[in-house]
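To close the section, here is one more complete example, presented without commentary so you can practise reading it yourself. The ligand is beta-D-glucopyranose.
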Amino acid sequence: MKGYRLPKRLMLGAASSSAQIEGGSIDHNWMEWERKGRLHDSSSFSNACDHWNLWREDIDIMAAMGIETYRFSIEWARIEPRAGVFDQEAIARYREEIEYMLSSGIRPCLTLHHFTNPTWFERRGAFLYPGNVKTFLRYVGLVVKCFGDLISDYVTFNEPNIYALLGYGGEGFPPGDNNLVSSRRVLSVMAGCHIRAYEKIHRMRERMGYQDTKVGVALHMRAFAPLSPMSFLQRKSIEISKWGFQDSAAKAFLKGEFRFPMQNLGGFKKGIYCDYIGVNYYTRNHMNLPAGDLVRPQDPKSDFGWEIYPQGLAEVMRELRAICPKPIWVTANGICDDTDRFRSLYLYDQLSVLVQSELPVERYYYWSFLDSFEWLEGESKRYGLVHVNFRTQERTVKKSGHFYREIIENHGVTAEMTERYVEGENYHQ
Ligand code: BGC
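Output:
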């Protein structure tokens, strides 16, 4: 195994989301979901990583690892706990954290929406109703007003396709509507929100005198393959699934091109509504109609049961580049590996795929910085570079975290590092 250099322009970072790390008893839709007993174990969002209190310590660890940029989200329910009521203390606390990040040499990238809604917004139907767009935009305005002087990089939505499909098309995520018509509508309303937010953030920051604003959306993209490459039916079903799951949304969000199942609910014009292409990539699905998608038994799997297929990152990045000519930000990529037995190998493989793709990738955000609260799976699934003991809140940088620190330091992987960290790791262990 050889070493390699990373592209000069690439910044290396890590990502998280507020509900997954902050803890506290906050009135958001996932807390309500937890109260309804919908999580798979008995852990609670109110615990998580207690980052709301331990933020300084966490940023210090990040800085010691050399993390160049950090993608995090604001918890809307914290800063607007009731409709139109703004919590100045929570806003001041976020400002303090962002200022500390900056003074530690870490470039912040702010996600406005990462799966959670304030309960009051959820009760009004959230993104099911185009009438709620203005409420979301008021929140966007509040965030830019409060933090716009500190932050130039924004992600409007994290994985809107997952939010809409699992929460509305299925019943796993809140509100569990199980209705594909709602799911289609929610995703269409969100695309409109994204376009309006893209324009609004630019407008506001320009008025503040800043010219360096970057706004995008983090799309969840999967690689797809037919179980039998010769089967016409399976190849066709992939085209349809890919279109419904990701490509139709990518066209609407990035370019204002609305084609079935997406609906243009706001008379949006075609254009370019992003400064970068945000992509979250984790896995590949095999298609086997009529049974549906699956992971083949012979393929390596993460502790989440997802196929480990690093090459898929290049496949989805190429797909997105064919849709939109902007540079790429890998807004999330990581692996569920509860005992850190192959995360270093995964990082090595994933970054090497990125290098070999020769695509213009400007950012790589490893998901996630800390072991965090994994939605339905709670504390039981670990993606972090830093181990969290959820009882004592003790943090310990994992072996893969040290590997990442050295990757950042060298802006690449040396042969000696490969020997020390990667050799001997194996996905099939
Ligand atoms: C989501 C995260 C989640 C991770 C692993 C990402 O795509 O944005 O919130 O923890 O997937 O499931």
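Once you have examined the tokens, check your reading against these statements. DSSP finds 14 helices and 13 strands in the chain. The chain has one domain: 4-221+244-281+304-422.
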